[in-house]
Amino acid sequence: MTGGRSDDRAIPTTGRLPAPIGRTAGRSPGSLAWARLRADRTAVVNGWILIALIIVAAAAPLVEALYGIGPQDQFQGQLDRYGMPIGPLGGISTQHWLGLEPGLGRDIFIRLVYGLRTSLVIATLATLVTITVGAAVGLLTGLVGRWTDGVVGAIIDVALAMPFLIVALTVVPTLTQRFYGPRDAVPPSFQAFSLILVFAVLGWAGTARLVRGQVLALRDREFVDAARAGGAGTTHIICRELLPNLTAPILVSASLALPAYIAAEAGLSFLGIGILEPTPDFGRMIQRSLGYLQTDPVYVLIPGSVLFLVVLAFNLFGDAVREALDPRAGGSGAR
Description:
By secondary structure, the protein is an all-alpha fold. The protein has one domain (27-329): Orthogonal Bundle (MetI-like fold), CATH 1.10.3720.10. 65% of the residues lie in helices and 0% in strands. It has helices at 29-39, 41-58, 60-67, 108-144, 146-161, 164-179, 188-218, 222-229, 234-270, 282-289, 297-325. Helix 1 runs antiparallel to helix 11 and helix 9 (234-270) runs parallel beside helix 10 (282-289). The radius of gyration is 24 Å and the shape is elongated. The two termini are 28 Å apart.
């Protein structure tokens, strides 16, 4: 970290360390964290899973072109007179890898690909906004102090006390009714913007409190006092002395926020106030599948399982990142 000599003896000897203590001499905290992350089998496996998911989501149009089926294409001819897919397990075949939706006959696989893209875009943008705003507020509040700290601290307490679901159920429909009439088609971009806005309004406070606490602990350290004594300005202290020491908690906060936003976006869409039809989305697919729980249980199982696995992979990788950056907070054994 900036402003002090690294002490190799202070590095905890957990089971996640990739090498004996003697090999850590001269290595930066970032390289040590990267080595711990690479030595964690759970982190490596979930990291590759996440890379594959991100590539599939980013290349959704290419997947559509290779697959030969679009998310809005309907195959009514492959449904029986009751609207149920013909064939075993909800119509799974070489043409439709995960079967068809009952009623509309849309391909489930390609809709999951685009649903993954929807969730990752919204969750990533929401994470970037909330982490940026929260880190900036926490940094400035902790550094300036005085009456600003009290005022912003009260605002943070209010934001943390707001019930997420109630605020979302109130804000999102209100925004939609403010700009669109009851018969107007709401663009998917506006639906995504509304969700990101709600996540940003309610999500920045946790990061702000975390960063503020770190800044309060760092601002009176010797290396910060030395920078001030050397004539360094506020910008230099923030960029060269504080931010390098805040990277770890900010990364941990981001790694935990991303899967939370994926699940929250799906939950709001499930309730009908997030992403709406015909845009593919995990929450809407799960909500629609409940009507076929008895007649086509595979349709319920597939989108729910995919959402669960995506959130689980992000959570496991985020936990591994936290332990790699702060091994004293982790377990004692490589997984």
